[in-house]
Design brief:
mainly alpha
């Protein structure tokens, strides 16, 4: 919703200001200019990026308009899940969670948290590293290095769609100039025709200027903000993995489950981070394990 409001404000302000200045809105409708700018930008986007990045960018656009999936409620459930995993391992032994991490789809523990269970990236991350904990033989230091390496790779991949769209945004003003120059070329050709009236020449000059206008408007009013929004979604997803990492490392260092999840709570953004008392009350009231 926020994204749609932003687009309406941008285009409404520009179009409204133009109309209020006695401009004709239909004069901005130049389909051939749009074809030149949009086609060139789309072709460059395809040329510059891998199929994986293209697919991720297209999938990321709808997410940029949707509300964040990683709010306070999601994190509370995530911390409770980590708490219950650690508690089960502490009470029944580390081997007690082997079945859960080997087959999370059939695990009652994971299936209690539907939103988390649907995110296979998060489940895979938790299970991979808890499987290492169950197997033993890895120190917290080694586990930290391994997690850091994976999260660095994940961050680069997650930001590729945003970077790809930002490059398109940077190129759009240039493609707008290309459209404008082509319009001027047509206009200059018309000047050599004695039968061409001034109105036709003026119309072609106006169309050429619209090309420059559209390139700049789409760059700074749509594509660049959209790439920023996709990048923010990637940051939010990365924050979830950092939270899990902090919890697992704290558990490996010998902290009790409540303190381990407190390490995870501290990694959360202040806007959604629950207080210590709020998390403690949530764990106590919603605790599923005895």
């Amino acid at each position: 919703m926020k994204g749609l409001i932003g687009i309406l404000v941008v285009f409404g302000s520009v179009g409204g200001g133009f109309v209020l200045s006695h401009g004709q809105l239909l004069a901005l409708w130049q389909p051939f200019e749009l074809l030149i700018i949009g086609g060139a930008a789309g072709g460059a986007f395809i040329l510059a990026n891998s199929p994986t990045t293209l697919k991720a960018a297209m999938a990321g656009i709808p997410k940029a308009f949707a509300a964040s999936a990683y709010g306070k409620a999601f994190y509370l459930d995530l911390l409770r899940l980590m708490y219950e995993i650690f508690t089960k391992a502490r009470k029944e032994g580390v081997m007690a969670i082997e079945t859960d991490v080997e087959d999370p789809k059939e695990s009652e523990l994971f299936n209690r948290y539907e939103k988390i269970a649907r995110d296979h990236h998060i489940i895979e991350f938790i299970c991979d590293y808890m499987r290492m904990v169950v197997s033993g033989g890895i120190s917290p230091f080694e586990l930290d290095n391994l997690m850091t390496a994976e999260l660095d790779t994940h961050e680069k991949e997650a930001h590729e769609p945003a970077h790809a769209l930002q490059q398109v945004g940077d190129a759009l003003p240039g493609f707008g100039i290309v459209a404008a120059v082509l319009g001027i070329v047509i206009t200059m050709g018309m000047l050599g025709d004695p039968g061409t009236d001034n109105a036709a020449i003026g119309g072609h000059v106006a169309a050429a200027l619209v090309g420059t206008f559209l390139g700049i408007l789409f760059a700074y009013g749509l594509v660049s903000p959209l790439s920023q929004a996709i990048g923010q979604r990637a940051e939010e997803e990365g924050g979830v993995f950092e939270c899990i990492k902090a919890c697992i490392l704290a558990q490996q260092q010998g902290y009790n489950p409540q303190v381990a999840v407190e390490f995870g709570r501290k990694t959360m953004r202040s806007s959604i981070r629950p207080s210590f008392a709020e998390l403690e009350e949530y764990l106590r009231s919603e605790r599923a394990l005895p």
